[in-house]
Amino acid sequence: MAKLLHLQSKNLSLVFKIGRIPEIIHWGNKVATIDEDLFLATERPISQARLDVDVPLSVCPELGAGHFNSPGLEGHRQGADFAPVFQLESVIEGQGNVTFGLVDSVAGLQLDVNFILDFESDVLQQKLSIKNIGSQPYQLDKLTNTMPLPYHAKELMTFHGRWCQEFQTQRIGFEHGGFVQENRRGRTSHENFPGLFVGSQGFSEQSGQVWGFHLGWSGNHRLRADVRSDGRRFVQAGELLLSGEASLKPQDSYSSPTLYSTFSAEGLNGISARFHQFVREHIIRFPKLAQRPVHLNTWEGIYFDHNPDYIMQMATEAAKMGVERFIIDDGWFIGRDGERTALGDWYLDEKKYPNGLEPVIEHVNQQGMEFGLWVEPEMVSQESILYREHPEWVLGVNGYEQPSGRWQYVLDLQNPDCFAYLFNRLNDLLSQYKIGYLKWDMNRELVQPAHLDKAAVNGQTHALYCLLDALREQHPDVEIESCSSGGGRIDFEILKRTHRFWASDCNDALERQTIQRGMSYFFPPEVMGAHIGPAECHSTKRKHGINMRGVTALQGHMGVELDPVKESAEEKQAFAKYIELHKTHRDLIHSGRNFRLDAADERQFIYGVEDDQEMLVTICQLAMPSHALPAPLRISCVDPKASYSVRIVEMPNTSFQLMKHRPEWIGKTIRLSGDNLREIGLTLPILDPESALVLHITKNL
Ligand code: GLA
Question: What residue stretches are annotated with the Glycosyl hydrolase family 36 N-terminal domain (predicted)?
Fold first, then answer.
């Protein structure tokens, strides 16, 4: 058996040292060859006053072998077999992938650890599965992916958030001890996005060595990053299993969710470029190759107040502005007059729609738009026909009153009758009406998530995937948006079955800048739902002019979230302008390379998208500029040998309160060489707080 094993992608190397149990000795920049002496060169000394043997930080660190930090596997058989020690039995190596087969014949466990390194994108997928080969049931408590990091990984960037404030980031030193994030909310959650970065000291958007991690899973999870007392450090990411959740009968197996990771020596930009490429090539499957259509979603426009004639008027106005897909949000089904009722009763409310939904859909289609509909299939309201008929379908523990959330309960998708009911209702809706798009919502956390009184987040999550898969098989052309009170269910595994995320219920452009920036580390813009809301934001009451709102929605999957009938002609004209601007640059935005620049002014976000010919750069002033004059804009990703034409395509119309005289180049197209743009830069106008500027830069032939 080879002692060192080397997987390579275009730019990265993953090197294993193979002993009793494999250990990763390098995950980072590509090394051309592996020297024979590396095996010796990486042998560790043994320190005084500790164990007499070396303990590898292996692909599944073992308590039983003397790893005193978090083990990769935890479980037992009525207390026994709690500290397994594995022996490597097989190594199956393919092109860019390897599976290690490990066995513990004492504990009766078989462990497979699988790595797939994607050559083009440099993204690594890592997955474990455990099989009970003993004769008694094995209670699995934890099986987690482990990835070691080098000593110069010294800083963490973690994610936190809440409703209306997803994808917030935090920097933490990483030298002693560790960081733990546990998600028990039963969905990916706003609070605990399953992603993490570790990097060299002070890593930034454009510089530093960074390792990026994302666990593709929509249920509970545990992420941790630890520095051991000997200085070795590692990240772990896996499902958080509730007590009793994974009991393996003899011959049963459990597979962990996939951990996606990558490395870049060019800061966070390199990481997101790799994740975006991987998502585009391996995760998203758009049914049609058409461009991503601009949306109008009715929620903030009319809430529960549905009148088909009025909705058709909204559709007419939407089409005039350039909208391409019109979505009726919550409130269309029988008895749904407010948030306390009717979830589960997925039949059209004929009181609201006496002529059916067909005339509305026809009208929408006649305006040249596709029709979409909101559903929240996993839920039931206590005040609903479904609950009255099937209270036993609620996910919960018998004998307790469980708290409701938004006055609703979760349905037990592992109950076959309940699953069949939901499949049939959705299948009927999609068959009866010409629906091209479903906004699939999920508006509460799981409390007491039990199937047959046993913990069941794992089963519920897999059943949700099955429901989505079954519907997609039946209706392959329907696109689905993953929404969960905004961004409560955003991850790679749900994205395999959906086509867009509603990033947040917060349409406040200022908050959105931060939310979207956090999301952009992992997800490309074509899956990031970004809508222009009304001037006064519904969730914060903050007011923004159209420039800030329009620019903020421009570089995502664009939409509008308001009632166009009530908006002034002037506002509507402005919406049309931003929609047009989005369409002009849509191909670039939805297929180009995204980047964020390290702004000299910390109160500014600078980000953009580029391909080999052109580039769109946004400068958004979040708060009062740090200094009276802005720093020149220096763009690192231009070709120094090329010549470029630079012009402003969007800037505030009226608001330039801080500036008396504009730089002369504004309003003109200027020509600059790549090396001038990179090294010297372009002087910007002084932007007022909460306003933004967009530049279009094209390569001169
Ligand atoms: C959630 C969603 C919103 C909207 C409402 C409808 O909050 O995130 O976009 O669909 O539900 O009830």
Answer: 22-248
- Is pLDDT at 130 greater than 80 in this prediction? yes
Mean pLDDT of 485-499: 98
DSSP state of 4: E
Q: Name the token pair of 168.
A: 């917030």
Q: Left, alpha or beta for 251 (phi > 0: left; psi -120 to 50: alpha)?
A: left
386-415: b or e for each residue (b if 16 or more CB lie within 10 Å)? Answer: bbeebeebbbbeeeeebeeeebbbbbbbbb
Give residues with Cβ within 8 angstroms of 617, minimum separation 6.
Answer: 606, 607, 608, 633, 635, 694, 695, 697
Atom of ligand 1 nearest to the CA of 339: 12
Query: Which tens digits make up the pLDDT trace of 25-47?
Result: 999 999 999 999 999 999 999 99
**CB atoms near residue 347 (< 10 Å):** 14
Q: Binning pLDDT at 50, 70 and 90, where does residue 290 land?
A: confident
pTM, whole model, 2 decimals? 0.98
The residue nearest atom 6 of ligand 1, judged by CA position, is 330
Ligand 1 neighbourhood includes 330 CB (under 6 angstroms): yes
Calculated CA dihedral for residues 372, 378, 379, 380, nearest 10 degrees = 100
Cα-based distances in Å from 640 to 96, 599, 610, 613, 672 = 34, 20, 15, 13, 10
* Torsion angle of the four alpha carbons 487, 489, 491, 495, in this order, in degrees rounded to the nearest 10: -100
> In angstroms, rounded to a whole number, what is the distance separating the alpha carbons of residues 169 and 155?
13
639: helix, strand or coil:
coil
The rounded Å distance from CA 567 to ligand 1 centre is: 22
Q: What local confidence, expressed as pLDDT, does residue 2 receive?
A: 59
How many whole angstroms separate alpha carbon 608 and alpha carbon 593? 8
- Is 488's C-beta closer than 6 angstroms to any atom of ligand 1? no
Phi, psi of 321 (to 5 degrees): -80, -10
Residues of the chain with pLDDT > 70, as a percent, come to: 100
The helix/strand/coil state of 310 is helix
Q: Is the dihedral of CA 630, 635, 641, 644 positive or negative?
A: negative
Place of tokens 């001890």: 177
Nearest partner of 646 among 666, 663, 630, judged by Cα: 666
Structural contact between residues 310 and 377, judged by C-beta atoms closer than 8 angstroms: no
Distance 485 CA to ligand 1 centre (A): 5
Q: Which residue from 303, 505, 506 has its CB within 8 A of the most atoms of ligand 1, so it is best to mutate?
A: 505
Question: Kind and range of the H or E element at 177?
Answer: strand 177-183
CA dist 473 and 35 (Å) reads: 49
> Which regions of 299-389 does DSSP assign to beta strands (E)?
325-328, 370-375, 379-381
Position 516 pLDDT exceeds 80: yes
d(CA 349, CA 327): 17
Yes or no: say if 512 and 531 are a contact pair by the CB < 8 Å rule: no
302-332 pLDDT, tens per residue? 999 999 999 999 999 999 999 999 999 999 9
Annotated catalytic residue: which of 81, 226, 412, 505?
505
**Using one digit for the tens of pLDDT, what is the confidence trace for 401-428?**
999 999 999 999 999 999 999 999 999 9
Residue 441 is among the residues annotated as catalytic for this protein: yes
Q: What is the 147 CA–ligand 1 centroid distance (Å)? A: 37
Residue nearest to atom 1 of ligand 1 (CA): 485
- Expressed in angstroms and rounded, the spacing between residue 240 Cα and the centre of ligand 1 is 27
Q: Among the residues of 260-307, which ranges form H helices?
A: 267-278, 299-302
Candidates 122, 441, 508, 563; catalytic one: 441
Cα–ligand 1 centroid distance for 479 (angstroms): 18
